[in-house]
């Protein structure tokens, strides 16, 4: 393995899920739902699979899916041409990697917010670029915000791009319009490309608003906006994602993408198109359910003795382990499946500064209520 990829030989999700299986633990580690997506979408996939629709789709994606993605994006007031400004990818993960491979190279710097989704550091490394990590700060109400001073300080003449995720995995924070407006201003001032990971765009709670960076002044032409069907329609295994950007940026991402996977998920693409057109009411129901599940798990964790942090979106809530007498969430996370039969992920594995994020565990609440309750019951034994 080449040195630049040596830090990335395994993923915490694969390891934690394997450990959960070994100990028959309730898996609140890896974020995936335990119920299916909308029936109409599944029917459509079945029709495609049995309707002889099983060969390569077109390189940029099925036209009806690109049209549906463009129409869906109109909800934010931005128009994209489905033929030149939309690209279907193998999940958001490929979109992120292809964008970095296409737009950055050795010597370039990419600003990444920590804690960061695990694929970001690996994808930046695969591109040969360098990550410049900035952190989050706590606002008065406990909400985590971008550290904009750190952002300004991280920009150098070599900075090429910023990689931003909101709603944010693993913390569940949602960046405000005000903060994102300042990010946009800095991107324009320093001629940066923004790569925005919006896979949790629909999963925001308590009236929080998802603001796509591309909708802010000067950003439409310099943003690679990425999302995916997995979280919106409970189909994380389908790996149908997409990019919306200017024709130049889409052409660049496509140049990389076409030699990574060429195409993927042909028979699933019409089903995702169908879901984007017809199942957004179902998604609103999912959002409401997840908000209740967030409350259920947050209350249960607090009851079990954790110091629970507020979550405003995503599948995740984080909790401080110190009130239970632990001093390192990673040590606890690796022992937890065997000790009480629950799996969670330590936030520090998503950072370059594990000491600063030492006390937080991430728990997924995208699970049936009985599963959440069972996990909470087991966690009570810790106290
Ligand atoms: N970005 C974030 C923040 C995620 O949490 C995930 C997946 N869980 C992804 C990207 C990957 O999305 P996909 O499965 O569509 O590749
Ligand atoms: N996105 C999911 C999470 O954060 C897991 C995805 C994966 O296993 N790579 O838990």
TrEMBL record:
Residues 24-379 form the Aminotransferase class I/classII large domain. Residues 32-63 are annotated as: Disordered. InterPro entries: Aminotransferase_I/II_large, Kynurenine-oxoglutarate_AT, PyrdxlP-dep_Trfase, PyrdxlP-dep_Trfase_major, PyrdxlP-dep_Trfase_small. Pfam families: Aminotran_1_2 (PF00155). Its cofactor is pyridoxal 5'-phosphate. SUPFAM superfamilies: PLP-dependent transferases. One of its GO terms (cellular component) is cytoplasm. One of its GO terms (biological process) is antibiotic biosynthetic process. The keyword Transferase applies. One of its GO terms (molecular function) is pyridoxal phosphate binding. The keyword Transferase applies. Keywords: Aminotransferase, Antibiotic biosynthesis, Pyridoxal phosphate, Transferase. It comes from the Bacteria. PANTHER family: FI04487P. Belongs to the class-I pyridoxal-phosphate-dependent aminotransferase family. This is Putative succinyldiaminopimelate transaminase DapC. It comes from Amycolatopsis panacis. The gene is dapC.
């Amino acid at each position: 393995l080449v040195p630049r990829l040596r830090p990335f030989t395994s993923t915490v999700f694969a390891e934690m899920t394997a450990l959960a299986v070994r100990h028959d633990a309730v898996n609140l580690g890896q974020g995936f739902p335990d119920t299916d997506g909308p029936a109409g979408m599944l029917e459509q996939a079945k029709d495609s699979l049995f309707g002889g629709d099983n060969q390569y789709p077109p390189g940029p994606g099925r036209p009806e899916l690109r049209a549906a993605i463009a129409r869906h994006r109109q909800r934010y007031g931005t128009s994209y041409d489905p033929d030149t400004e939309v690209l279907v990818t193998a999940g958001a993960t490929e979109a992120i990697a292809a964008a970095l491979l296409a737009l950055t190279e050795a010597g370039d710097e990419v600003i990444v917010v920590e804690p960061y989704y695990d694929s970001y550091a690996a994808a930046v490394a695969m591109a040969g670029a360098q990550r410049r990590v900035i952190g989050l700060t706590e606002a008065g109400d406990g909400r985590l915000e971008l550290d904009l001073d750190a952002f300004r300080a991280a920009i150098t003449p070599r900075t090429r791009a910023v990689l931003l995720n909101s709603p944010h995995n693993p913390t569940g924070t949602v960046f405000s319009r005000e903060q994102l407006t300042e990010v946009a201003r800095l991107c324009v001032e320093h001629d940066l490309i923004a790569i925005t990971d919006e896979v949790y765009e629909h999963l925001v709670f308590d009236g929080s608003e998802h603001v796509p960076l591309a909708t802010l002044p000067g950003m439409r032409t310099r943003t690679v906006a990425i999302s995916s069907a997995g979280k919106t329609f409970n189909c994380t295994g389908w790996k149908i994602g997409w990019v919306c950007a200017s024709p130049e940026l889409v052409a660049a991402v496509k140049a990389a993408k076409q030699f990574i996977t060429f195409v993927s998920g042909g028979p699933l693409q019409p089903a995702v198109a169908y879901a984007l057109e017809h199942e957004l009411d179902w998604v609103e129901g999912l959002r409401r359910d997840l908000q209740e599940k967030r409350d259920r798990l947050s209350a249960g964790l607090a009851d079990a003795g954790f110091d629970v942090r507020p979550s405003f979106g995503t599948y995740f809530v984080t909790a401080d382990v110190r009130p239970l007498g632990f001093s390192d969430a990673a040590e606890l996370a690796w022992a937890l499946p065997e000790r009480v039969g629950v799996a969670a992920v330590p936030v520090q594995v998503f950072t370059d500064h594990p000491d600063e994020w030492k006390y937080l565990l991430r728990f997924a609440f995208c699970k049936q209520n009985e599963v959440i309750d069972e996990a909470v019951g087991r966690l009570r034994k810790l106290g």
